[in-house]
Structure of Tetratricopeptide repeat protein:
Amino acid sequence: MGELIQYYKQGMKYFVEGSLDKAFSYLTLVASAGIEEEKLNNAIALMLIYKGNFEEAYKIFALNNKNYRDGISERYLSSIEQINNCIEKHNLAVSLIKQYKYEEALFHLLSLRTLGFRTLNDDILTCSIYAIKRDYVKCKEILEEMHLINKEEVFYYEMKDYIDKKKYSKFKLYAASVAAVAIIFSSIAISGFNKKSNNTEKEAISKPTVSVKKTNAETDYKILANLSNDMMKENLYDFWAKDKELDSSKLDENSRSLYNQLKNTFKDKAESYFYNNGLELYRSENYKKAFEYMSIAYENKKGSYLDEHIIFYLAKSAKASGKGGSEYYREYINKYPKGCYIQESLYDLAIIDYKSNNIKEAKKYASIIVEQYSDTMYNNDKIRSIIE
């Protein structure tokens, strides 16, 4: 039946098993390749709701209800008012959390659960409040329920590690609350299932019978599915590494469009992501990895204020990892003659050139230090010995 059918079946299998991140990657890939099927659409819509993208989910439900008149889409379309009420109650809880009124917030969060509307972000907030109250038993109960819905939920593992080991350096409780608070300005992520209805709906769409418009090379589809998963998790390093293995020319038009969207998202985020992580690696003295991250940031410069910092730390990490760095120091000096790192760049380049027996260039940069920065720590014996 073709590779796409296999990805469809695998995506549905992940969905039923509760591996929603993988399921979403596989099924959106299949949908982009031209499969039209009621159960596929419902699965994607349900996951979009869980992830908080109500607008896109309800577009799919509306289309499904129009084409197939199925029970799942009709139920969700008829429950918009109730969902809006839950959103209002959620936002009230968020407001109370901002005022440190945890008991009142917890009351409203628990009342949402009794209504049957399970939300990822409300579970995160509830867990966080229980952890603050040191009621770890109840916190673990909610964590396990979250794990049943999505076995790949990062919060589950971070909070579980915090509770089990009390590793404050690895998990800061406030980060979870802040992340959940941010949804007050957008759609919240509602799973909408109790345990019984969750399993029933998953089982109802677990056996697809579809036709495929077009098939492509299995490896390229697999890579594209993995790229989608990496981008969803904002794992940009893995995305960058896997992207080299993909031959986009072998994809059909719809899949290539999805790939181009992923690439554009990567380009938007890559500069700051790799710079910030590269800087942390440099500060922790992992110079080889820092050079790799700074190199990727350099490849994705956007002409922003970060460019100056990227070029400088690319030069520093290259020097520290034994890769020279002179070309990046020269680029920095030429582009930013009044930059915030100019003195250190002149100094490092003078030393590098001198050690490379490029005496003329070494003297040029050493002379600039002596003439323009004579009262700084860089005008030292090493620099004066180069000039002499």
